[in-house]
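Case study 2.
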Amino acid sequence: MRRRDLRPSLAFSLLALALLVLPAAAQALDTKQAASFLEELQEKAASRLGDASISDQEKEEHFRKLFNENFDVPAIGRFVIGRYWRAASPDDQQAFLAVFEDAMVQRFLPLLAENSSERFKIGNVTMDARNDNMVLIDSRIDRPEGEPYKVSWRVRETDGDFKILDIVAEGVSMAITLRSEYGTVLKNNGGKLPPLTEALREKVAAGAFTPKQ
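Prediction:
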């Protein structure tokens, strides 16, 4: 098997600066409340992950908690696997979601902790034209040099519970990028999920998703 390099592209890596700085919750019909939620979780994440007095293990535990509370990991996992998801057994699905979470934590935790002093400015909060329980929340981070870095957050509300489904940074969708990368690996392995899971597991074990200095 010829394995595709599963490390994110440069454009995708830039998403790491943004991930989990903002919260998943947003009231679709109340833009002020949506902005308030974003600001609140941004402060919570920055205060914990940027605290030099706590251990790396504590930071990881905190990050995982935020990640699972604010991102719909199962929904994202199903999307990035695409049409191959239904053909996989429940055990294979759960094994993939577990290592998928590990890969995301390894990729994003170091960058978030190192850049915890950065703050996003919340912009427009608009309804998704295709789904009345979804909103798109625009944000940006100003940089000393160059244009501001723009990130949009796709958030879904279900029975008062809010989850992030995707991040679009400078026009690059995290979910679509992963769907394309994983789809190639799956296609090369007859649509079987375990080879992709094992490839991701090996990458995580080798620290391949840790941002390079």
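The beta strands are 121-128, 131-141, 149-158, 161-169, 172-173.
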